[in-house]
Amino acid sequence: MSNKFDSYQKRRLTSSYISVVISIALVLFMVGILGLIVLKSTKVANFVKEKVAITLFIKDNVTQKQIKTFRESLLEEEFTKKAVYTSKEQAAKKYSEEIGEDFLQFLGENPLKNGVDIYLKADFVTPEKVAELEKRFSKNAFVADVSYDKPLINLLTKNIKRISFWLLVLSSFFGLIAMILINSSIRLSIYSKRFNIKTMQMVGATKSFIRKPFIWRSIKLGLFGAFLALIALAVVVYYLDQFIPSLDFLNDYATLGYIAGGVILSALIITWISTFFATQRFLNLQTDELYY
């Protein structure tokens, strides 16, 4: 009879551990997917921002040597991603191709100016910073005029802030759900050991001594759940890279590293906190309260 009961208890305990691992893996998988979306959305937003350019139209009396020196000085600025020089002849040719006829035949001369397109780094693509750069370049002795798409920058900044806000809200919501679900699973597994906890406490074991094996066991289960979640995430990333190659998932080692590190760290922190408070609850219960 005793052997049957022990066997039943072992099966029940194993089932409890399996449910904890599966719960942790599913929750961490969701957290990983959300983290992937957040990090990739930032990269996509930066990619779009870095397509924005400020065009500097150069005065006609500026020599090619001076333009070259000016462009090289722009490349050394912290806000510059790249600086592309376009001569007025190249600009005229491109414009003629766009309108489908050679407008120079009608005008007799080229009214366009030499220009330098400055593609800004993502951090500098805000209405305030671009306005400051416009004022700065307008005072430059080589620059005749400064042009950029102000409405586009305003719209881009506004939409990115809105998307970032909702992603933050969503991340917080899923993070809270993750903690609640994992905490519930761990508490259920510890609940079956509540009498053992109280017995150890009654024979003089300290709270930290009683708590330690439960914390270590939960951390091991959490790491195993994180391992399963990472395998599932790896499969998702692989197929996403096949269907959306432009986002270059597999070669983005920084993002993949952040996701893997975040999943493992979340497993460690959440399981440790959940186990600590779950065991604390049972340690603080009176003996007659263990039956409720």
Q: Secondary-structure blueprint of this entry?
A:
Elements lengths: L1 H48 L3 E6 L5 H12 L4 E7 L1 H12 L4 H4 L7 E6 L6 H12 L4 E5 L2 H42 L2 H9 L4 H37 L9 H31 L9
Antiparallel strand pairs: 1-3, 1-4, 2-3
Helix pairs in contact: 1-6, 1-8, 1-9, 6-9, 8-9
Task: Explain this structure.
This protein is α+β, with helices and mostly antiparallel strands. The chain has nine helices and four strands; from the N terminus they run αβαβααβαβαααα. It has helices spanning 2-49, 64-75, 88-99, 104-107, 127-138, 150-191, 194-202, 207-243, 253-283; strands at 53-58, 80-86, 115-120, 143-147. Strands 2-3-1-4 form a four-stranded antiparallel β-sheet. Helix 1 (2-49) packs antiparallel against helix 6 (150-191), helix 1 (2-49) crosses helix 8 (207-243) and helix 8 (207-243) packs antiparallel against helix 9 (253-283). The longest helix has 48 residues, at 2-49. The chain is elongated, with a radius of gyration of 31 Å. The two termini are 26 Å apart.
Q: How many E strands?
A: 4
Strand content: 5-15%
Shape: elongated
**Strand arrangement, major sheet:** 2-3-1-4
Which spans have pLDDT < 50 for at least 5 consecutive residues?
A: none
The share of residues in helices is over 70%
**Helix and strand string, N-terminal first?**
HEHEHHEHEHHHH
Number of helices: 9
Sheet having the most strands: 4 strands, antiparallel
* Through-space gap between termini: 26 Å
Tell me the structural class: alpha+beta
